[in-house]
Design a protein that fits this description.
Strand content: 15-25%
Radius of gyration: 26 Å
Largest sheet: 6 strands, mixed
Structural class: alpha/beta
CATH architecture of the largest domain: Alpha-Beta Complex
Order of helices and strands: EEEEEHHEHEEHEEEHHHEHEEHEH
Number of helices: 10
Number of domains: 3
Mean pLDDT: 80
Length: 358
């Protein structure tokens, strides 16, 4: 909003979402106003005051100081919706995933330099500083993921473009492409930009999951032209089924329905698909679900025979071997432990006999 006449403001002022930079004086306005305590805790402001006048008058400087004081008071108001959402909801959701506020692995208001479109003033773009709501850092102090927070009354997807701009700035500065979470306290959306559009998830991912996904992004090989091993499947329709699913995965699809008659080797097709995706470093952890113990036992034998190099385990009795790459379980068995697993724990989930189970 460009306001040239509002109240006591004696110079043109542009209000923008994001952190605060005083363009006239070239000073960051994150510090408290002069009449505030020097040791006050000052996170970045979420409304930036950009003064446009190239030669500010004394009256203009006074107006800017008034604006700074108003912005400071607004930020620290307990009624500020976004701040309340972050403190009362998003902070706790992050802590449940191992990202505790105050730890060195979680940075609030990470400062990044990005292109801020101020076309009304210049007709182009100008470098400006922006602040990421949360940055989830790896052990080398590089952002693994960022969180764009909105107040609970807003759709978290409204922050998609803003978060994408921040991620681009981080990629330019750190050389890594961070994952993106969009959150409003009620919903969390995960955006794996290199593969898929945003999708709704039940919680934030812990560091181990994000590191695994980053590894797969870095070392994953194309699936186009990759062939399943003939020692696992050798019939033309089986090979065609695996190739078709692999091609659809390469095209960024996430859900597939494979229909084969009884006795035509559905389980071996599943094993061949897992082997192909692991060989191309597109997945690591797999969950195979079935509605009967007999089917789990049969699948366990197939994985043992045709994929002996992949550690596997049967989930039952409320126990889980987290060193295994392939987990097999009945639905009741999985229900007994799923709340102890993160939303991003598995890279591939296979549901056997899905017409009876899901």
């Amino acid at each position: 909003m460009l306001d040239r006449t509002a109240g006591k403001v004696a110079c043109p002022v542009l209000f923008c979402e994001g952190p605060g930079i005083d363009l006239i004086h070239g000073r960051d306005i994150l510090a408290p106003p002069k009449n505030q305590a020097a040791n006050s805790s000052i996170p970045s402001l979420t409304r930036r005051v950009l003064a446009i006048a190239p030669h500010p008058t004394k009256r203009c400087r006074s107006s800017l100081q008034t604006l700074k004081l108003a912005a400071y008071r607004v930020y620290h108001s307990p009624m500020r919706p976004e701040n309340r959402t972050r403190k009362e909801r998003i902070d706790h959701q992050l802590a449940r995933a191992g990202w505790a506020v105050g730890s060195r692995r979680l940075i609030e208001e990470l400062n990044v330099q990005s292109a801020l479109n101020i076309g009304e003033r210049t007709g182009g773009e100008q470098d400006a500083y922006a602040f990421v709501d949360y940055a989830l850092m790896d052990h080398l102090d590089r952002p693994l993921a960022i969180v764009e927070a909105k107040r609970s009354s807003r759709n978290p997807l409204e922050g998609e473009r803003q978060a994408s701009d921040y991620a681009d700035a981080i990629r330019a500065e750190y050389g890594v492409d961070p994952f993106i979470f969009l959150a409003n306290g009620d919903e969390i959306w995960f955006w794996h930009r290199s593969l898929y559009p945003p999708r709704k998830v039940s919680g934030f991912f812990p560091e181990d999951d994000l590191l695994r996904l980053a590894h797969l992004d870095r070392f994953g090989q194309p699936l186009t032209g990759a062939m399943p091993l003939p020692r696992i499947i050798d019939r033309a329709y089986q090979i065609e089924a695996v190739k078709t699913i692999a091609e659809r995965i390469e095209a960024a699809e996430r859900h597939f329905l494979l229909v084969l008659a009884t006795g035509t080797g559905k389980t071996r097709v599943a094993v061949a698909l897992v082997e192909l995706l692991q060989r191309q470093e597109r997945i690591q952890r797999v969950l195979f679900l079935a509605d009967r113990r007999e089917l789990v036992k049969q699948a366990l034998g197939a994985f043992k025979e045709h994929l002996p190099g992949a550690p596997r385990a049967w989930i039952e009795g409320g126990t889980i071997d987290k060193d295994a790459q392939v987990h097999l379980a009945t639905y009741p068995g999985m229900m007994s432990i799923y709340e102890r697993l993160s939303p991003g724990y598995y890279d591939l989930i296979i549901a056997d006999e899905s017409h009876r189970s899901i």
